[in-house]
Structure formats: C-alpha cells, structure tokens
Amino acid sequence: MAATSLPIAPVNHAGLPLPDIYARVSRHVPAIEWPALADDVAAILELKKTRNAVILAHNYQAPEIFHTVADIVGDSLALAREAVTVDADVIVLAGVHFMAETAKLLNPGKTVLIPDMRAGCSLADSITAADVRGLREKYPGVPIVTYVNTSAAVKAESDLCCTSGNAVDVVRSLNAPRVLMIPDEFLAQNVQSLVPEVEILTWAGHCEVHEQFTPADIHAVRESYPGVTVIAHPECPPDVVAESDFSGSTAMMMNFVTEKRPRQVVLVTECSMGDNIAAANPDIEFIKPCNLCPHMKRMSLKNIRNALETLTHEVTVEPDLADRARLAVERMLAVRPR
Ligand code: 13P
Ligand code: SF4
C-alpha cells in the first residue's frame, strides 16, 4: 500500500458565493435546511479569516463540512503530512482526537482546536502507554509500530507510527524479522498477508465501525449487484478484505474509484465516504453499507463555528511526551514508498 496524494484538491471556499457552495451539498442537504446551515458556513468562512485559521477535515466528515468549510481534506496520512505545511495561527481538526493530537505534535507553536473533546476512537481507547511498556519488556528488541489511531502517550512509547496508507512500507522499512504492530489486530493481519517474510505480532484492538462487516455482507451485496466492485478499508477483518477487490486507506479507496471508475461500487467503510465522492462521480453508482462512526459524527458546523468563536477546545500535549511522540510520527513521515 503506497502513500497517496490527496484524492480531491485541497478546497478553499473563501470568496465562493453561498449558492455555489450549496450546489456542492444539494444531494445531501434538503433546500429547506440550507438557510440555517448557510448562516454557520458564512460565519465560519469569516472567522477563518479573522482568526487566521484553517480547517483540516477527515474523509469521514459529513458532506456539509467536507464540501463547505474544509481547507484540507484527506486520510490520516494526508492530514498529518498537510499539518506540517499549514501556514496559520489556528488549526481546527474536524475529525477525532488522535488526529488533532497529531496535528499538535507537528505544530507545537500553533493553537490546535477540536470542536468536541469527546470525539475519540475505539482503537485509541484499546491500549495504554503502560500496555506498550509491557510489550517492550515481553518482546525485547522487537520494533514497535503504532497505528496513528492512538494517544500521544502510546505513540511516545513506540518506535514509529504508521497509517493504513503506509503500513506495509513502514514494516518493510524496518528490515526486521519480527515487528509488533499495535493496536489494530485486523490491520496487522491484513498487512501480514502482504508482508509474509516478516512475523507480525499484534494487540486485540478493533475499530468499532469496521469490525462489524462480515464476509456474509459481501456475499449478499455481490448477489444483489452482480459485477459490483467491492472496496474495503484494512481495519476490516481479514476475511472481509479477502472477499474484496481492493483494500486501502480512505484516500486510496477514493483514488481507486476515481481512477478505475467502476460502474457500481460498494465502499466497505464509514458511510460519509461515498457521500463525499458521489457528487463528483455521477456516472458511478455507490451502494452504501451505512455504518457511521459516532466519534467522527460529533463534528458539526455549529461546533466548528463555536470552536472558532471561543478558541475551544484546545488540544495540548505535555512537552516531554510530545517530543517522544513527535519522533515516532516524524520517523513515519520519513518512510518513502517502495
Ligand atoms: P484513514 O487513515 O484510512 O483515513 O483511516 C482513518 C480511520 O480512522 C479509519 O477508520
Ligand atoms: Fe476510530 Fe473506527 Fe471511528 Fe476510525 S472509524 S475513528 S478507527 S472508531
């Protein structure tokens, strides 16, 4: 799995009239609801100027955020990469807490805000720094690769990070016979099948959204839609990935669809992904398995506006810990695709 560039050019809506912005979300936002949302959109666009702020939004954000106020959109890898280049005083992360923490690690001098502090992640919650220290003792000398979906405290205990977009490259870059890849058990197993020469040890963490998919779901969709192309995120169980036609990070899934242009496609991942690329691809039929990530869906135009008005909720990382966690993220960013 190679790292990919942003699937959709970074967006900047400053100066675009509101009716033109509405055209981008009209498939998902009924006209009657738009005036209330337009008020928040206009306020956010103005606040971004006065606060010298940018909004980084993950691919799972709802269309009314993704297509209206986001300056940069992408997968976890792209958001981490873009965070390094951001020229602003304030970064608002429309996504989940670990993404905001990663942005803060890479921008210690900037104010990083998350509109709702409760936007967590079941993978990040599945492991603590003490757990990683325990693994280090149990497996001395085995490099520890931590998925970015973890707290800064966990990153600080690891050797380097990975995302679903570069996990294979990161493992190969180590040239080690054995690697600990934590905490996503399914991602580790999916990487194991692509890198058989390395023994990959893992942890029992799962994504609460992707663990729900089963091979029976894929069989059912193939039966109902003969010839459909099935694309699965590597946080899905390996038997689901094995039944799919392609697997990759959210950006890689988007790129696959825009390049290969399947007639009918099912994206085995969070529901908003399909919504966000459907408008630009009217010739492709998106069949949607509607699993929503409750953490990603804590973001709204209302709380993004509030974040910019009140400069809350600020994400901070204690400096010593930040230095160690940053090292793990920077080592990941230095890995080149093979
Ligand atoms: P990506 O890095 O593929 O965007 O995945 C992040 C995530 O949380 C998927 O559940
Ligand atoms: Fe975490 Fe899963 Fe939500 Fe991604 S979709 S943020 S891995 S809980």
Automatic annotation (TrEMBL):
InterPro entries: NadA, NadA_sf, Quinolinate_synth_type2. GO terms for molecular function: transferase activity. The keyword 4Fe-4S applies. Pathway: Cofactor biosynthesis; NAD(+) biosynthesis; quinolinate from iminoaspartate: step 1/1. Binds 1 [4Fe-4S] cluster per subunit. Iminosuccinate binds at residues 58, 76, 147-149, 164, 233-235, 250. The keyword Oxidoreductase does not apply. HAMAP family: NadA_type2. Belongs to the quinolinate synthase family. Type 2 subfamily. This is Quinolinate synthase.
